[in-house]
Design a protein that fits this description.
Layout (H helix, E strand, L loop, with lengths): L17 H11 L4 E4 L45 H4 L2 H9 L2 E4 L6 E6 L2 H10 L4 E4 L4 E6 L5 E5 L2 E4 L5 E2 L9 E2 L2 H8 L28 H17 L4 H16 L7 H13 L4 H14 L3
Parallel strand pairs: 5-9
Antiparallel strand pairs: 1-2, 2-8, 3-5, 3-7, 4-5, 6-7
Length: about 290
């Protein structure tokens, strides 16, 4: 994919909504874009794609088998195709949009998201200078090159690249540099606890002679639905929020054997819709089980 390291001013396209004009301009530069709701949230999946029942994009490094015409699947909806961006299926989203986002990894970029003044000060002392974009509370430092996205690699620092999205906040200043090893090393140090080896998602077996504490199937259903909702509504520190919700579900429902692969799949789908990778979901689930001694 080709792209420019310098972003000119957004040209005026008065016949279109402002966010769509910006999106089309960015698409011309090679940035895959998508609309965001107010509060920096992607649009929810359509009915067909709810909880990724379509088997679509969140697990894919590019648009997957889902052919949904709507802007579903969070970062997976990002596109440079002007026909898709201006299609009737996207029109309602652009009318409601509060911002434009882009998929950095789809444009061979990595964004180091510095969320506060302390994080910015740390970056200025430790990272090579590159293109910098001011944000509401900090800065985005943008590098050429891709890597796996990670949240919370250190206080106030997230990395957004493959399988993630970043808000478009303007062209910024400075010359873009190649992704340095020090940023890749941050991701390797992400977990505060020892990272377990990846493993298949499994259901905790019912203990011999154990008594199920659930009064009815509706009790478990309410617990899963509540966890899905809270994951969907979280607006920051997504990785930590997902871990906390996995921990809560396992502590309440994980020891009696009633928790099935279908329930776990729903939780993973909710997290992936927020931009979490499958690897992040697997690690958060395993860490939660380890925390509870399962």
């Amino acid at each position: 994919m080709t792209h420019t390291t310098d972003f000119p001013r957004d040209p005026a396209r008065p016949a279109l909504p402002a966010h769509l004009r910006t999106a089309l301009w960015l698409a011309e530069l090679g940035l895959p874009v998508l609309p965001l709701r107010e509060g920096k949230r992607p649009f929810e999946n359509c009915r067909t794609c709810t909880r990724s029942a379509c088997g679509g994009r969140p697990n894919m490094k590019a648009a997957g088998p889902c052919q949904c015409p709507a802007p579903c699947h969070a970062w997976g909806a990002a596109t440079t195709d002007p026909d898709i961006l201006t299609s009737p299926a996207w029109a309602g989203a652009w009318k409601q949009a509060g911002a434009v986002a882009y998929h950095p990894g789809g444009a061979a970029l990595t964004v180091v998201d510095l969320d506060d003044a302390d994080a910015v000060a740390w970056a200025r002392q430790n990272l090579p200078a590159t293109k910098t974009v001011p944000t509401t509370r900090g800065e985005h430092w943008i590098y050429l090159g891709t890597m796996t996205s990670h949240n919370g690699v250190r206080p106030g620092v997230d990395i957004k690249s493959l399988m993630s999205y970043a808000r478009w906040l303007g062209p910024g200043t400075g010359a873009m540099q190649f992704l340095p090893d020090i940023v890749r090393a941050l991701a390797a140090k992400e977990p505060t606890a020892a990272r377990p080896e990846p493993c298949a998602v499994t259901v905790v077996p019912r203990a011999v002679g154990g008594v199920c504490p659930h009064r009815s199937p509706a009790y478990l259903e309410r617990g899963i639905a509540m966890a899905e909702q809270r994951i969907t509504e979280v607006q920051e520190a997504i990785h930590k929020a997902v871990y906390r919700m996995f921990l809560a579900v396992l502590s309440a429902h994980g020891r009696c054997g009633c928790l099935t692969d279908a329930h776990i799949g729903r939780l993973f789908a909710a997290a992936q819709t927020k931009g979490e990778s499958l690897r992040h979901c697997e690690d958060a689930w395993t860490n939660a089980r380890t925390k509870l001694g399962m």
